[in-house]
């Protein structure tokens, strides 16, 4: 409305002629509403659960554990075999395949040194993929649920002391690999501390299993027995760390 002065509207209301009424706000269209629904935290969490379920189903279908008994296909070898195994290792950890089985297979297929390098590369790859999926698809939906005292204390520990906490989790064989990945993703831990602690903390346990896999044909050899001892030592150290953290969480 253009002009100067006031106009009287029916009912005695006065409208300033210099004031332009605000246009009505258009309602969101069907496409916009669908987009918001698909990008909502719970929709993304549902997508994550579907992806993990599909990955688990693929693992059951292809059964990668048979590498321990059947070995690598005869025609597969060289650098391509190492790269393929490392990539498959990482994807299998995302799909909840136990790392000890994969570490034993790496040692049995490639020997102690190359098996260790391949297994560590797959470990970091799998941890990074799981962390990224959890951070992108699950964090926004799950963080509001951290209301219990223990959950808040654990989240605070991971957020403030990410490297130290993740290093302890990797050294302790009793902590499932996938559980540590997704718990860290829900927290506010950074990428660099997570990946660095994963790489360093996984070395002792991975090396022990790789050596055990490489020397599995001679279970009485000193190397095999030393590998078994190295598996037990981190477990004991991790138990002590977990016991101390348990008392700290209770005191908060």
From TrEMBL:
Q: How does it sit in the membrane?
A: Multi-pass membrane protein
- Keyword vocabulary terms for this entry: Cell membrane, Membrane, Transmembrane, Transmembrane helix
Where do transmembrane segments lie in this chain?
Answer: 45-64, 76-96, 116-137, 191-211, 223-243
Q: What is its main location?
A: membrane
A GO cellular component term found in this entry reads:
plasma membrane
One Pfam short name: VTT_dom
Which residues are in the VTT domain? Answer: 97-214
Q: Where in the cell is it found?
A: Cell membrane
InterPro entries the UniProt entry points to: TMEM64, VTT_dom
What is the protein's given name?
TVP38/TMEM64 family membrane protein
Q: Which organism is it from?
A: Streptomyces griseofuscus
